[in-house]
Amino acid sequence: MTASANDLNCVLFDLDGTLLDTSYDFAYAIGKTCEHFGQKTVTYQDLRTVVSQGGLAMTQLAFPELNGDELEERRQYFLDVYFNNIAHHTGIFPGLQAGLEHLAANNIDWGIVTNKPQWLTEKLLSLIKFPSAPKSVICGDTLSVRKPNPEPMYLAAKECGTQPENCLYLGDHPRDIEAGINAKMKTGAAMYGYLPQTATDKDWPADWHFHTPFEISRFIQQNF
User: Fold this and answer.
1) Which of the four, 24, 57, 126, 147, has the lowest number of CB atoms within 10 Å?
2) How many alpha carbons lie under 13 Å from residue 46 in its C-beta half-sphere?
3) Which residues lie below 8 Å from residue 55, measured CB to CB, with a gap of 6+?
4) Cα 202 to the chain's mean position, in Å?
5) Are the C-beta atoms of residues 193 and 17 closer than 8 Å to each other?
6) Are 1 and 210 a contacting pair, CB within 8 Å?
7) How far from each other are the two terminal CA atoms of the chain, in whole angstroms?
8) What are phi and psi of 66, to 5 degrees?
9) Is the pLDDT of residue 143 over 70?
10) For 204-222, how does the pLDDT look when each residue is reduced to its tens digit (9 = 90+)?
11) Would residue 14 show up in a list of annotated catalytic residues for this protein?
12) Is residue 153's pLDDT more than 70?
């Protein structure tokens, strides 16, 4: 690791697959959708690798032969089931709690930048208890552009009262790292997230690679 953490004063997280493990509730919703439409369900492991690509990708995985209105009908059904069961099995990734507690104890601002739409993000976050509240929550539809465009990153930094170059952005998808780089932020790849099974550190031009949530907590404790 050659990057310097000396000037960091804010942590920004991607949501699904980085801060929260939402995969089990997505799997439940896909299972119910497949059951409703008489389709054989996908395996949890296959679904987990595409969660960070969003609802359409998950629906396409379950219904690969469909497109157009039929696929959209299933996507909407899937999202409705997910909304109504959004936090039955979702929680902060084990190991991240210590890092979040460190941020809270030291009054360090943190935020969330996600491509998840606001109606799902707000519902989910209302059901999760954090040691301190995020200072900024930027959703996929907060602005007219989404990650990897840097504008959501700039807005999050502004709402946290800091400059982009003083932020660490953590994410589990290539567009997360791309977004952080585009915004001139330091970046950390959450290699424990919803990655393809073949993904390696070489695929991620991040400043740091974290293979467990515990590593992120330790990094936060040592550098903030």
Assistant:
1) 126
2) 11
3) 75, 78, 79, 82
4) 21
5) yes
6) no
7) 17
8) -105, 160
9) yes
10) 899 999 999 999 999 999 9
11) yes
12) yes
DSSP assignment string, 115-184: SS-HHHHHHHHTT---SS--SEEE-TTTSS--TTSSHHHHHHHHHTTS-GGGEEEEESSHHHHHHHHHTT
* Dihedral angle sign, alpha carbons of residues 175, 52, 134, 204: negative
CA neighbor of 177 nearest in space, from 2, 3, 14 = 14
Edge-to-edge strand ranges of the sheet holding 208-210: 136-138, 110-113, 10-13, 167-171, 186-190, 208-210
Tokens of 5: 């953490």
Q: What's the CA gap between 130 and 137, in Å, rounded?
A: 13
> Within 13 Å, how many C-alpha atoms sit on residue 89's CB side?
9
Question: Quick one: tokens of 188?
Answer: 């950390």
Please pick, among 7, 14, 25, 141, the residue that the annotation labels catalytic. 14
The closest alpha carbon to 221, from 125, 95, 134, 129, belongs to 95
Element (DSSP H or E) covering residue 111: strand 110-113
